[in-house]
Specification:
Elements lengths: L2 H23 L3 H5 L2 E8 L8 E2 L1 H9 L6 E12 L4 E12 L6 E12 L2 E11 L5
Parallel strand pairs: 1-6
Antiparallel strand pairs: 1-2, 3-4, 4-5, 5-6
Length: 133
């Protein structure tokens, strides 16, 4: 892969991650779910081994959440382009919510695929770096 092509793919994947947190904070669930492939899957940082499978199920899971105000701060995004069509990434998340309690610090491990609509998540696996005790 040419260096410029690699850099553009890395940037597109970084943007995918940043769009995800912005849409999450804005409660724009349809647009957020559209960032996944049809068979994509995700797990929340509070339940890293409990995957929600399929774009429709992901949309339903977000729509069923109680309303809240949240702000996700995303940092340390590292993208690895594996091929012209595949990438993986890690990022750290600091989550502030309107719910009581301290902010949560977590990590996402992502797998992404280039589709006709651009880069999309095939998997997002969240985990808490400092689990609640």
């Amino acid at each position: 892969m040419e260096p410029l092509t690699r850099m553009l793919a890395e940037r597109a994947c970084e943007r995918l991650i940043l769009d995800y947190v912005a849409l999450n904070d804005a409660a724009q669930w349809e647009a957020l779910a559209a960032l996944y492939t049809a068979d994509g899957r995700m797990s929340r940082p509070t339940a890293p081994d409990d995957f929600i499978e399929g774009r429709d199920a992901i949309l339903a899971a977000f729509q069923s959440r109680p309303a809240r105000t949240s702000r996700h701060i995303c940092a340390n995004i590292r993208v690895t382009i594996e091929s012209d069509q595949r990438a993986r990434a890690t990022s750290q998340i600091l989550l502030f919510t309107s719910a009581d309690g301290p902010p949560l610090v977590g990590t996402y491990a992502d797998n992404m695929k280039l589709t006709g609509s651009g880069w999309r998540f095939t998997e997002r696996r969240g985990s808490l770096d400092f689990p609640k005790t």
